[in-house]
């Protein structure tokens, strides 16, 4: 059987993936669609933003392995075959990278860097009170691979950390909340809110004015989840009236963000081009190769995406 690499990344990037996958799986026939003789030969597809319509034309497909952690775009494809198990990328390197990004931007807000940057532009020498990290409470929406690593990193830096998930967790040093009914309690008393949820029908638009008004006035916001989580107009309105003090946004409903989008120029927004935790090709290939070797040996698939809940 063959393994099909199906992406919409640049030809150069696709070639790099192909070469690395071929060297990690020397006993397999890893191929591109253009080189495939018979679609019935494919039992595994490795995908990164695959073009629509192709996956459903592979009659013997047994597993779809994503090269990304988030699978919202894939699940949004109406042509995705219904009964083929979908496996997302779970990579400790990615979680560590996200924890680093979260720590970087929480520390930047904690140490007032946006405010000092503005003062520098005005050549203004003014010191503000320095709080201890233990005086701050950080809330993390989503306690999955990304959320737990980030929560633990923030805890190690001395912050009070809370997390919110669908099912209740027990994580040492982290105050855990679960479910819609405990969201309000989770939000009360936060200094900084970090979003690390997957984009699902339930979490779409969660970063809205309704949520912002449950936060203490002047809370900082960091969105490293997906653009579909934030209602852009509500973020801007909350920044303008001081309900939010500053927002670090890495993800947008349209990416790349168009040059004429006013978010680029908002004085209270730190804007990043979706760089919080990019897939690391080397470790991703190792993990995907391990998943496939294990499947060939045992017939067992890695943990699958639960399509009914969207992650
Ligand atoms: P994950 O392991 O699947 O964890 C998702 C977490 O969100 C879980 O704790 C889950 O609760 C919680 N959750 C889901 N729906 C919920 C709901 N309706 N209410 C409350 N909690 C809910 O996902 P992950 O690997 O941590 O990744 C999270 C997201 O990060 C990805 O989907 C992707 O969008 C984003 N991401 C962004 C970047 C970037 O560079 N910006 C990079 C990688 C990933 P349970 O634990 O109870 O299931």
Break the fold down into its secondary structure elements and pairings.
Layout: E1 2-7, H1 11-24, E2 29-32, E3 42-48, E4 63-66, H2 72-75, E5 86-87, H3 92-110, H4 113-121, E6 137-141, H5 145-156, E7 160-165, E8 174-178, H6 183-187, E9 192-195, H7 209-212, E10 219-223, H8 232-240, E11 244-249, E12 269-271, H9 281-298
Parallel strand pairs: 1-2, 1-3, 3-4, 4-5, 6-7, 6-9, 7-8, 9-10, 10-11, 11-12
Helix pairs in contact: 1-9, 3-5
Bound molecules: NADP nicotinamide-adenine-dinucleotide phosphate (NAP).
What features would you describe in this structure?
The protein is α/β, with parallel strands linked by helices and 311 residues long. It has 2 domains: 2-91 and 279-298, 3-Layer(aba) Sandwich (Rossmann fold); 92-271, Rossmann fold (3-Layer(aba) Sandwich). Helix content is 30%, strand content 18%. Strands 8-7-6-9-10-11-12 form a 7-stranded parallel beta sheet. β10 (219-223), α8 and β11 (244-249) form a beta-alpha-beta unit. Bound molecules: NADP nicotinamide-adenine-dinucleotide phosphate (NAP). Residues 69-70, 94, 98, 142-147, 164-167, 196-200, 202-203, 224-226, 250-251, 274, 276-277, 311 line the site of NADP nicotinamide-adenine-dinucleotide phosphate.
Features:
binds NADP nicotinamide-adenine-dinucleotide phosphate, Rossmann fold, 30% helix, 5-stranded parallel β-sheet, 311 residues, 12 strands, 7-stranded parallel β-sheet, 2 domains, alpha/beta
């Amino acid at each position: 059987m063959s393994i099909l690499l199906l992406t919409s990344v640049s030809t150069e990037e696709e070639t790099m993936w192909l070469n690395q996958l071929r060297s990690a799986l020397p006993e397999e026939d890893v191929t591109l669609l253009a080189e495939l003789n018979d679609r019935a030969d494919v039992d595994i597809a490795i995908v990164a933003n695959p073009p629509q319509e192709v996956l459903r034309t592979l009659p013997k497909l047994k597993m779809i392995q994503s090269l990304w952690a988030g699978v919202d775009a894939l699940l949004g494809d109406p042509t995705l075959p219904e009964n083929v198990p979908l496996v997302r990328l779970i990579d400790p390197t990615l979680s560590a990278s996200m924890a680093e990004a979260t720590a970087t931007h929480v520390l930047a807000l904690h140490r007032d860097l946006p405010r000092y940057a503005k003062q520098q532009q005005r050549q203004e020498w003014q010191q503000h009170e320095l709080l201890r990290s233990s005086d701050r409470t950080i809330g993390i929406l989503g306690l999955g691979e990304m959320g737990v690593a980030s929560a633990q990193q923030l805890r190690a830096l001395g912050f009070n950390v809370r997390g919110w998930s669908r099912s209740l967790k027990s994580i040492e040093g982290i105050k855990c909340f679960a479910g819609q009914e405990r969201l309000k309690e989770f939000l009360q008393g936060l200094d900084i809110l970090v979003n690390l949820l997957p984009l699902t029908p339930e979490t779409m638009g969660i970063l809205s004015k309704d949520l912002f008004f449950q936060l203490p006035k002047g809370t900082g916001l960091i969105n490293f989840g997906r653009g579909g989580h934030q209602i852009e107009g509500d973020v801007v309105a909350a920044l303008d009236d001081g309900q939010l003090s500053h927002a670090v946004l890495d993800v947008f409903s349209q990416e790349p963000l168009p040059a004429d989008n006013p978010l680029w120029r908002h004085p209270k927004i730190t804007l990043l081009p979706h760089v919080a935790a990019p897939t690391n090709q080397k470790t991703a290939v190792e993990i995907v190769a391990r998943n496939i070797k294990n499947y060939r040996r045992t017939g067992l698939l890695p943990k699958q995406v639960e399509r009914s809940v969207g992650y």
